[in-house]
Amino acid sequence: MAKELKFQSTVTAEQPNSEIKKRKRSEAQIEEWETIRRQSTTVEDKDLNIEGVMRLTLSVEMQRFLGCVFGEHVSPEMPWTNIKKEQLQAYLTAETEKSEIFAVKEPLMEFPGTEILVGYICSAKEPNQFYICTTEAAKKTVLEMIIKDEAEQERRVSSYIYKVCQEWNPLGSGKEVEDNQPKHARPLLEMQTWAAASHLNQPVMFQDRNVDDVQDGYVKFDPRRHKYVTVTRKRTDIAVQAVPEKCLSVAQTDTPLPSNIWTQYEFHADAQKEIEDEELSRSIKQFLHEKSPQMADLVRYNSVFDLYKVDYPDLVTAGHDVQVPKKIIYSEYQSFMDVRNCKGKVISAAAWHPMWTGVVACAYIDHMQNDGIENDVILQDVFSTNLVLIWSFMDALNPKLLLRSPRKVHALQFSPYNENLMAGGCSSGQVLVWDLCDKLKVEEDISLSDDKLKYRHALHDLMGWTRPTTRNRLVNPALISSLEFSHSSSIMDIKWLSPYYEISHLGRYQELKSNQPTSLQFLTCSEDGSVFVWDLNARGSRRPPKMKPKRRREYKFMVRQRGALSYKQMAVLKPHYKFVAESPSSKGCLPLSVIAVEAFPLRYMLQTQTGFRRKFNMTERLLYKPEFQQVKSLPKSKVYIGSMEGHVIHATWEGYEFNLGEEMNSETLKFKSCGDQHDGSVSALCLSPFNKKLILTVGGSVFGIWRDGIKNVPVLWRTSSVMLTSGAWSLFRPSMFYIARVDGAIEVWDFLVQSNKPVLVQSISGSALTGIYPSRLGPVQNIIGVSDITGNFRIFFVPQEHMKSDPRNKEAVTEFFHRETECRHFAQERQDKWKACNADLLQVKKMDIQAAMKKREAEKKAKERLEREKRIQEEKELQMGKLKEEKDHMKEEKAMKRWNLEQEKYLTDVLLEKKKLDESALMDKKVPLDKFQEDERQKRLKQEERMKQQDKLTERISLMFPEIIRETVKADTNMEMVLKELEETVNIFVEHYKENEEKALMFKTNNTFEYQVNWKELLAEGKNRRHVIDVELYRNTGRIDRYHKAKQELKEKLDSLQGKKGEYGKQGPSRRGDLQLKKLSHLGRREK
Amino acid sequence: MASEVEETMKRIQSHKGVVGTIVVNSEGIPIKTTMDNTTTVQYAGLISQLSDKARSVVRDLDPTNDLTFLRIRSRKHEIMVAPDKEFILIVIQNPTE
Asked: Coiled coil where (chain A) (predicted)?
């Protein structure tokens, strides 16, 4: 404590002078404290109650000797001191006994220690009084007492000291202290720890674990009660290096060329420098001489073509190219059907008007029916109405014009350069010419309002009782060829000839006579194998070739004159020239079905006044006029004909140089080529509108495309599974054509697209189609007419896709056919070569086939004879048996039948009455059922027919390919083998022959000819034949008889009628009367 | 002599799109050039190296075979290389020009 105070004092001493006052005061205080302290610590003048401590008085000399002089060694503050035992012992030995110290001589001498504790007693009344510790224990106790006293005193002193709070004066150590103190230099780090959930959920693998190996292996539990202290760790020290390490990187921002070992040299390539070295120069020259041409080529190529350009995106030029093709459909626009006139009739021919748009003529004929009297051709011809209707788009239900014809019309054709003329061919072989007398125009003049039209219709309806003579819809033929000069059989086709030239009487093309603007000639072909040339101009004196536009008055005149146009007058029209086609296979004429001539150039110009860019309506009728062109060369005298037997013939004629003197010159056609690929009558023969040389033919189930210059075979032909009825070229694409089928579908072919199957097959009618007619004029060119067997003429839109055509297509078509022709030629050549090489082999084969055929036929005949005999035998037996039975049963049966019938009738009557049903109504209801049944029956019949045909076909085929061929087919290739086989077969044949000869001779000798005549059989056969003939004869004679009879009756009837209605009788022309009469008689006969 | 060489090079150079023509010797040192020095050195060094590599590849594939021509088509240029025993003819062309 003293030290501290001292230190304190030194501290105060260091204080600056300004604080002296304070220090003085503190000194005074210290003195005060000293006195207090002295009083407290001074050894009191009383005996210390401690054993071994003795009180004695020591003289000053003694004090000096011992070293405990008051004021020098001891003081009131520090009364206690140690003296040396040796000094004391020395003093004791030297001194006398008189000294007071001797009193304590003995204990002192025995004292074990070296130092003896002596204390001065300040409080004693006498001076120099001292305590002395004689024993060790006393000394210890005194020392303890001293420490105790001191502590007591210090406590007392400290409690006395008054401490004043003072300002802290930093002396430079503060900084150091501060540095050692931890401080928040940055925000505290926040730590978050978590365990992945997956870790917790993981499957646990347990394994052995030694508890001694690890720290927390086990926990010891004491049996006693034990208190565990849980010490929570509240702070974790984690050091993180938050200062990023210093890094140093350098980037080169300058971009010099990268260099490596090859490019780092500093070579200066001087292009201008001349090469001094002769050797080097020469070698360079040599090198460049070699390489530069190639390089130059490549460089040039590169500069022109980009070899690496990606062309795929350019392949699709337009967006629509990649679209999925739409389904192409021929949609129907209209269908013409006159229920009144043409129900149940067949369209035999149709023709589009070449100048009026949307006008079509259709010829209707009766169904060819199989049953009974209906099949009577003559009756049908005479009594049926043979109409040719002209339709326009304006009205789909009522025809525009009704053309009359005396016979069925099988062919129709408008004149391509005279709008009013139409030629027709009859089944009788006659040619008809109708003059439409501008009647097609009439509709144009009518500019009536709707109301007016209505009134007109109403009026017409009211006038139903009048005879239809006033109706200008009826047109009778203007010309009919005379029967004697006409074809002897039905006309099948008509074609108009070029207007620029005409065929002379001598059968040669010649220039027109000066007074004729155009020629008016046409060709007809017929079943009798003849082709006639007709010339309307030949009658020039009687009738102007071109019709002047007729006034109404004239028209009326015509109507009145109609009755006068009798057959006799028509006899004047006779053919101009005649061609005859002879059958190539057998002698006789070839029945022709179609004819075609080379097309002539003719353009049609729009005549109707039209506004600029006006949109044309489908129903609108536009008139086109033909525009004649200058033609220099005469057409070639050639004609294409198709026969009923399936021939397609390219024929020519020569004509005569001088008149033979006959009434009509005739000539046999020369066949340049004749193909018979068709398996049925050729029903269509069309020249391509784009390529003069191409011809499309349809016949049977085959259609073919022929090309001029290829003889006897079509370039391309396809066989269909169904029969084909007609065909026509498309007017838009050179490679497209249409085929009509029996099953009511049309096929659209485009052989540039695919030549193995049609592009499109669309079923458009339930019944067989009879013809297909593309329209050729202006805004209605996109339609195609299809006629079917039920008398419907349907008009279809040609889809846009089939109207577009690439101009290159034309070339492609030519190219295509050229290629095909080449192929064919090549094949033909090879075949010929092979045939020439293997003539012997072929001969042998032929012989074999013939032999086989003969054998088969013989077998067949034998079989047939046997069967016939057997049958006859059986029949005879049966008849014999029947005759007897019949007589007995006849009467009985008849009676029974009658009874049953009556009963049935009675029953039905009763039933109907009871149920209150009307019989006629029931019959009406039954009609569809009947129809259905009838259809079924027809179908079955057809099927049977087909099956029969199949049998025939297979038979024929099997005859054509006998087994022998099949066996030797493979051997053909090896000549030696063939020869060997040949020898063998010849040998075999020789052997066979010998055997057969013997057998035959034997047979001959054994079986001498004996023929037994069975007179009864012969008679029966004769009778049978006679019966057949009689029946047929009766039918013929009977018909004539019946006809006369009916005629007589009706004449009587008519006479009586005329008596009643005189006016009708006068007015009615004889022909009409005749017709009616015939009809009536026909009806009468039917009733019979 | 030398003028003939230059003429040949000029002829090649005259084609459409040709950027430059270089004749390099077998060591990769340009002998004749129509381009500037740095480009020439770059082309000469790198192309001759590539051509050597290409030749070795061709030879490795078939020891009797030899490289006759090398075309490098890049986005900007087409580099045509005609290597020989002693020299290499390099033509750089810009075909889309």
From this structure: 849-893
Domain ranges of chain A: 48-161, 815-915
Judge: A262–B46 Cβ closer than 8 Å, yes or no. yes
User: Mind listing the pLDDT tens digit for each residue in A235-286?
Assistant: 788 887 777 778 888 877 766 666 777 777 666 666 556 677 788 888 888 8
Test mutation, A255, A265, A281, A284, chain B, max B CBs within 10 A? A284
Alpha-carbon gap, residue A687 to A353, rounded angstroms: 19
Question: Residue B42: which of A263, A275, A283 has the nearest Cβ?
Answer: A263
Measured in angstroms, the CA of B89 and the nearest CA of chain A are apart by 8
Largest Cα span, chain A: 229
Q: What is the DSSP string of A34-102?
A: HHHHHHHHSPPSS----TTEEEEE--HHHHHHHT--BTTTB-SSS-EEEEEHHHHHHHHHHS-TTSGGG
What is the C-alpha to C-alpha distance for residues A346 and A784, in angstroms, rounded to an integer? 18
Residue A79, Cβ neighbours under 10 Å: how many? 21
pTM score, two decimals? 0.46
CB–CB of B84 and A287 under 8 A? yes
Enclosing H/E stretch for A486:
none
| CA pair distance A526, A489, nearest whole angstrom | 6
d(CA A685, CA A599): 13
Checking if the pLDDT of A852 tops 90, the result is: yes
Largest interatomic CA distance in chain B: 40
Judge: B87–A283 Cβ closer than 8 Å, yes or no.
yes
- Helix H, strand E, coil C: the string for A418-475 is CCCEEEEEECCCCEEEEECCCHHHHHHHCCCCHHHHHHHHHHHHHHHHCCHHHCCCEE
Residue A567 pLDDT > 70:
no
- pLDDT tens digits, residue range A1021-1078? 888 888 777 766 666 666 777 788 888 888 888 888 877 655 444 444 444 445 555 5
Q: Find tokens 């007995």 and name the residue.
A: A888
Query: Does A262 contact B86 at a Cβ distance shorter than 8 Å?
Result: no
Nearest CA in chain A to B19: A299
Q: Which residue in A260, A267, A281 is closest to B29 by CB distance? A: A267
Using an 8 Å CB-CB cutoff, list chain A residues near B49. 262
Angle of CA points A612, A615, A620, to nearest 5°: 110
**Is the ipTM of this structure higher than 0.90?**
no
For the cut 50, the answer to whether the pLDDT of residue A784 exceeds it is yes
Cα(A488)–Cα(A529) distance, integer angstroms: 9
Q: Which chain B residues contact residue A282 at CB under 8 A?
A: 1
pLDDT tens for residues A458-485?
Answer: 887 777 666 554 456 777 777 788 777 7
Residues of chain B found within 8 Å of residue A265, distances taken between Cβ atoms? 41, 45
Instruction: Compute CA distances A578 → A353, A432, A504, A561, A789, whole Å.
Output: 28, 17, 11, 32, 33
Pairing of the two strands A592-596 and A638-643: antiparallel
Nearest Cα neighbor of A108 from A90, A125, A123, A89 is A89
